[in-house]
Amino acid sequence: MNKDELPEILTAQHIADYLGISRRRVYELFQIKFTAGGIPNFEIGLSKRVEKKDFFEWIDAQKQEKAKSKY
């Protein structure tokens, strides 16, 4: 699955499939505050969702943080 195939509102399963990690790990990342590296999300009832643009901004932030720690 590539970026263009993803819907505008993502589920934990979409994120797990895209990143190649378990859905359980995605829910763990949902529990972490965004400022501490967690995936930004919102709730609809009991379900958690992520806006596609927020998800890719989070990925970019993770890359930048990793690049900073290398130097």
Question: What is the count of β-strands?
Answer: 3
| Largest β-sheet summary | 3 strands, antiparallel
What is the total domain count?
1
Distance N to C terminus: 32 Å
Helix content: 40-55%
- The radius of gyration computed from the alpha-carbon positions, rounded to a whole number of angstroms, is 12 Å
Across the major sheet, the strand order is: 1-3-2
Portion of residues in beta strands equals 5-15%
Shape from CA axes?
globular
Protein name: Helix-turn-helix domain-containing protein
Organism: Desulfosporosinus lacus DSM 15449
Domain Helix-turn-helix: 10-62
InterPro entries: HTH_17
Summarize the structure in words.
- This protein has 71 residues and is α+β, with helices and mostly antiparallel strands.
- It has one domain.
- The protein has helices at 12-19, 23-31, 52-70; strands at residues 9-10, 42-44, 47-51.
- The chain has a three-stranded antiparallel beta sheet.
- A hairpin with a 2-residue loop joins strand 2 (42-44) and strand 3 (47-51).
- This is Helix-turn-helix domain-containing protein.
- Residues 10-62 form the Helix-turn-helix domain.
